[in-house]
C-alpha cells in the first residue's frame, strides 16, 4: 500500500511502485483530467504539480509521490476558478481541449514563479506543452491576462 | 404529464418522453447535476430539443465534437429560431440516431453546411408547436402568441407561460414543415460570439474524452501491430507476458473475415493483431515488453472492396517492404510515364512547343501522421445479444454497418455513444479501432477499453499520402501565360483537383494524374489532396509571377478576372469573384503594398476547397538564424460566420498547424517500418514557434455558411513557401522545409 496525498485528499493505493503517477491517477483513482499524450515527457498533456513543481506524470514513478503533495487539474482550485482557468474561459482558448489541462498546470507554475512574465518567458515555460489544434496564441494571451488579474487581485 | 399524454407524445415524436441516461450525464460534475436532471422529466419535442415542465431547455448537438466547436455552433442554429436565452440552455451530445438527428458525421468541413437549414427548421418547428399549444389552451389565434427567451406571451389577454408548461402539449402536435426562417439581418444568436459550452469542463479536467471513459469491471486492451507495412504476425510466445501482474489474456485477433467487403472508411492497416488484455494500462504496457513475437513478410495480399463504394472487387495489396528513398526514385520513374488525363482545354502541347519560355518545377510532400493528441481508443462491451461502444469517432453511421457485419448483430442492437474527441483531423473517420475493441470485448466477455499508445498510433498508418506534382507554364514573347500543365502523382493516390483554379483561366490547360499502389494505408487528413496542392501550386504561381514580372496578388487577380469574364472550359469549381474577394481583402488588411512592411519576407497564397475561400499573407523574419513566421494576415470567405470568435480561433489554429506541418511534418520509411514513433522524432510545432499575431478577417456576406475546419489550412503551406523563398534567398520544393534549413529535429 502506498500513501498518496492528491488535491489535499489522502489515498491508499495498491500498485507497483514503479507505475507512473499518470496511470495511478487515471486508472486507479479515476482522476482522468490528467491526460496521456506521449508517455515519454514530450507533450506535457500529463503535467501535474509535485510539491508545487510542474512534472510530467507519465515518467514520474508513483513512489516519488509517496508522502508528497500532488495537485492535479481537478484540484488546482477548489471551484475551478484559478486565475489561469478563468483566463482560459475568458479567452475561450480551447479547441479540442485535450492538452489544456496540461497547459493550465504548466501556466499555473509559471505565474506563481514569475508574476509578470515576458512573451519570451511564456514561450520558454510552455515549450514542453504541445497543442495539436494550434491554440498557442490564445494560450499566450490567457497567461498574460491571468498575470494581470493576479496582480490586480493583489496576489502579485 | 399524464400517462396518456406520455404515450401520445411517444407515438408522435418517435421517442416521446425521454430521460437522460447517457454516460455523459452520469459523468456530470456535481455542480451541474441539477441542470442535467431537473425535477421534471424531459419532454422531447423533436430529436433536437427537450424541455422539462419547469422550463429547462436542452438542445442536442447531432455531430461529434473534435475541436471545431460544433457542440456550440450547431445548437446556436437551433437556438436562433427557437427563441431561448442562450445562457440558460443545456447543451448535450446527442445519441447516434441518424433517423432523428441527420447524417451525424464530422468531416469534409460539412457540419455547418449540412445542418444550416435542418437545425434552424427544427428550432422554428419547436417554437411553432409551443405557440400552437399555448394558443389552443388560451383559445386565442396562434398568430397572436409571441415568444421571448423561452417564454410564451399573449399581449391582449396578458397571458404568459414558460415553454416548459406547454412542452407536453406541444410534443403531441404534428411537426410543422416549411417554416419561414429569419433573415440574416434579424439574427440574435448566430453571428454573435458564444463561448464553448464545454469550456468549464475542459479547464477543470472533467471526463469528456473517450479515453476518460470508465466502467466497473472494465479491462484495458492494447494491440501489437506488425512493425512495418507488408509484415504480418508469424508466431508468438506469451508465457512471460501472462505471468505479469494483472494480465488476463494474450491472443491473436483477426479483424475482417476473408472476403469481407470493405467500404470506404473500413480501412485498416493490419488485419491481424496481437492483443494483450489486463487490468490497468500500465500493466498491459509492461506485459507487452515481455512478449516474444515473430513477424514475417506478408507478401502480396488481397482485399475485397465494395460496401457502397463502387462494385465489389478484389484489390491486390503489394507486399513490398517500402523505403522512402526507393519511393522517391519510383515516383520519379512514374512521373516520366504517360498518365491519366483529368482535364484538357485547348491545345497545350502546341502552346508549349511555341512558347518563348517554359517554367517547370516539381514539388514533393511526405506521408503525414494525424497525431491527434488523444491517441486512438474505444470502449466496447459486446455480448451475444448487443454491443455498447463509447468513444471518439467522426462518423458513427459509417462504422455501425461494419460492426453489424463483423459482430453479426442487427444494427439496432449496436449503440455507439460519441464522446468529445482529442482531435480528429480526418483520422477518426476510420473506425477500425471500434471494431477491434468490439471483437476484443466479445472474446474476453467483459467491458474493455482498447487504447493505442502514442507509438501504436503514429506507426499504425492511415496517413496523408505521399505526393508529388510537376507544374509547367508556357509564356509567349510578351511574357503572357499561354499554357498551364500539372501532372501529379502519389503513393497510393494522386492529389489533383483538375477543375480547380487556375483551370478556367488559361486557354491551354492540361491536368494529369498517376498513382503507385502501396501497402501503406492512407486516409483523409485535414483538407485531403488540397493540403498538398495548395502548397505546390501556390508556390509555383509565385515563381510564375516573378518570371512574368508581376506582383503575385496581381497575377492571381488577373487570372481570376479572366476566369470570371471569359472562362475556359467547363466545370470550373470555384467562384472567381469570391476567390478574388479574399485576395483583395488580405492585400488590404496586410498592407501588402505599404513600404513599412518591406522589412518582412512576405509570402501570399490563396486557395479554394471544401466550399470556402482562404488567403494568407505570412510575414517571416530570421530569428537566431532560423526563419520564423512572426505575423500572419488571413482573409476568409465561408459565407455567414456562425460563431465569429470560435471561427477566428479555428483559423488561427489552422495557420499554426500549417506552419508546423510545412516546416516539420513528415514520415519516412525503411523496409516497411515508419521511422518516426513519438514526438521526439516526429516534430510538432510548439509555442515558441507559433506567430506573435494571426489577424483573421472574414468577408461579410449573407451566403449560406460553408465549412472552416479545412479551408484555411492548405494555403498556409504555399504562403510559408513563398515567404521562405524571400527569407532564405532560395526556393524549397521538398516538404518539410525544416530539415533543409538545419532546424533542430526535436525540441
UniProtKB/TrEMBL annotation, chain A:
The segment(s) forming the 2Fe-2S ferredoxin-type domain are 1-76
Provide this UniProt record's keywords sorted from A to Z: 2Fe-2S, Iron, Iron-sulfur, Metal-binding, Oxidoreductase
The reply on keyword Kinase is no
Task: List, in alphabetical order, the Gene Ontology terms for molecular function in this entry.
Answer: 2 iron, 2 sulfur cluster binding; metal ion binding; oxidoreductase activity
Keyword GTP-binding on entry: no
PANTHER family in the cross-refs: BLR6218 PROTEIN, OXIDOREDUCTASE WITH IRON-SULFUR SUBUNIT
Name the record gives this protein: (2Fe-2S)-binding protein
From what organism does this protein derive? Hymenobacter perfusus
Q: What is the lineage of its organism?
A: Bacteria, Pseudomonadati, Bacteroidota, Cytophagia, Cytophagales
